[in-house]
Task: inverse folding
């Protein structure tokens, strides 16, 4: 599979796109106003302990305190039953200082998710200062290779008299001893500097900042399948070249400085794909389509045949549509960076073999995603439940905001409904008064669509209402008001 990395750098924004066979698969975006803090280390101060939630809020110098659950404390097994965990108030105290790492960026109104289980990544290894074992990524399936890597890292660690634990990353498969040694020594020296620095610090604040997005993506996502890394900024290109020369010399000839007059993302059609990734509806090549809904609790994906009627039977049409959807869904989740609980509503299939094949295609497509994914089988209702690890905001949350008209609901009241709401507001106010105000009138301020309807289509209703309350109604257009916004006030001596 051919892969390309495109890095677009501007003074106000950096964007990194990963393309698989020319199709946009993953997008990272970091703005000058503030990027991701996942992976950063902070010296934190425990601000509040909540025994009822088995959690604590920790001040780390960000806008909101971070959230630290008892499962994320060093030494606490993450799969331990809730009732078997010790009370967090016996492990932490308010005012206590501790070193924490951001596991998830702040999302919506939630603060950053924190952990004291520190993990420092490099190209091939992850250093864990508070454990002493050597592990290997589960994605490396060959047992002989797993044992080779574990033995090499253990030997280098003993030789360097290093007592920290390490995890061998997936990209280390086939790596030589010299590469592993360089990574291990680099991480050990970096941790020594971090540890010394955080001990010397007083108060909450940043101790270690992760690499910028353009370098971090090269470290974490670039694989031997990558044919080119194209960068449209000379300064960033030179920095990337220094990083590659030190850690990934085999990729040196794949770095390309893009200096064409056509913008990099336009040249490869990425801008159009980003725009499509913000749409609810995802067309399938067969003529079917997906409908992706993002809510606070979960992501729902509905599969529809749409205009596809190519099968000889209904079952065949449904099966082919579901197969195509199963291959597309994981790419859309990765591209849009959707995480948490995901429910896929496949079209009902009667043949159990068709169900198994669709699930296999879905599992195979999920293997390409570096995020941790868990899948369930197809339920009797044709639903598949899955979870995808989420560490940062989704693409939609990064580049969009709730619509001011509908306030994020996706629907806005009709002008007619707003007119009726205005009538009810006037009736409620008039009912509070014992008699009409002499010389007064109700002034209604609303958007142009609402005022137009009050004057034209609802003119008879306005006259009836005026007679009932004994006060005239006056109208004023407010250009900045949405269709649901209005003000009603009783004015005296209004001519």
Result:
């Amino acid at each position: 599979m051919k892969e390309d990395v495109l890095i677009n750098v501007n003074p106000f924004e950096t964007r990194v796109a990963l393309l698989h066979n020319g199709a946009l698969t993953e997008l990272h975006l970091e703005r000058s106003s503030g990027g991701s803090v996942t992976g950063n280390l902070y010296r934190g101060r425990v601000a509040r302990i909540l025994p009822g939630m088995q959690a604590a809020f920790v001040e780390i110098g960000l806008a909101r305190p971070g959230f630290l659950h008892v499962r994320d404390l060093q030494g606490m097994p993450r799969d331990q039953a809730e009732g078997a965990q010790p009370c967090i108030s016996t492990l932490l105290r308010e005012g206590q200082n501790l070193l924490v790492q951001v596991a998830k960026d702040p999302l919506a109104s939630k603060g950053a998710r924190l952990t004291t289980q520190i993990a420092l990544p490099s190209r091939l290894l992850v250093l864990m200062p508070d454990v002493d074992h050597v592990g290997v990524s589960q994605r490396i399936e060959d047992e002989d290779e797993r044992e080779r890597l574990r033995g090499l890292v253990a030997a280098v660690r003993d030789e360097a008299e290093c007592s920290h634990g390490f995890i061998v990353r997936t990209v280390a498969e086939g790596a030589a001893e010299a590469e592993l040694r360089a990574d291990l020594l680099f991480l050990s020296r970096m941790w020594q500097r971090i540890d010394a620095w955080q001990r010397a610090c007083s108060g909450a604040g940043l101790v270690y900042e992760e690499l910028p997005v353009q370098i971090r993506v090269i470290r974490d996502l670039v694989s031997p399948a990558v044919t080119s890394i194209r960068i449209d900024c000379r300064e960033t290109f030179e920095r990337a070249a220094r990083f590659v020369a030190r850690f990934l010399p085999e990729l040196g000839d794949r770095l390309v400085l893009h200096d064409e007059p056509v913008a990099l993302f336009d040249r490869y059609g990425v801008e159009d794909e980003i725009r499509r990734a913000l749409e609810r509806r995802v067309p399938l090549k067969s003529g079917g389509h997906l409908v992706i809904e993002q809510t606070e609790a979960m992501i729902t994906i509905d599969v529809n045949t749409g205009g596809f009627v190519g099968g000889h039977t209904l079952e065949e049409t449904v099966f082919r549509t579901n197969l195509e959807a199963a291959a597309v869904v994981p790419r859309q989740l990765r591209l849009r960076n959707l995480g948490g609980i995901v429910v896929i509503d496949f079209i009902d299939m009667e043949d159990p073999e068709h169900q198994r094949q669709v699930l296999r295609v879905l599992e195979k497509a999920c293997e390409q995603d570096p995020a941790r994914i868990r899948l369930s089988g197809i339920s009797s209702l044709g639903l598949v439940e899955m979870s995808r690890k989420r560490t940062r905001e989704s693409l939609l949350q990064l580049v969009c905001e709730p619509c001011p008209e509908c306030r994020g609901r996706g629907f806005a009241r009709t002008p007619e409904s707003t007119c009726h709401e205005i009538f009810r507001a006037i009736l409620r106010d008039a009912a509070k008064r014992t008699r009409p105000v002499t010389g007064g009138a109700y002034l209604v301020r609303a958007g142009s669509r609402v005022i137009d309807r009050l004057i034209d289509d609802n003119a008879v209703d306005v006259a009836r209402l005026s007679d009932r309350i004994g006060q005239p109604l006056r109208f004023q257009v407010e250009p900045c008001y949405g269709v649901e916004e209005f003000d009603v006030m009783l004015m005296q001596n209004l001519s």
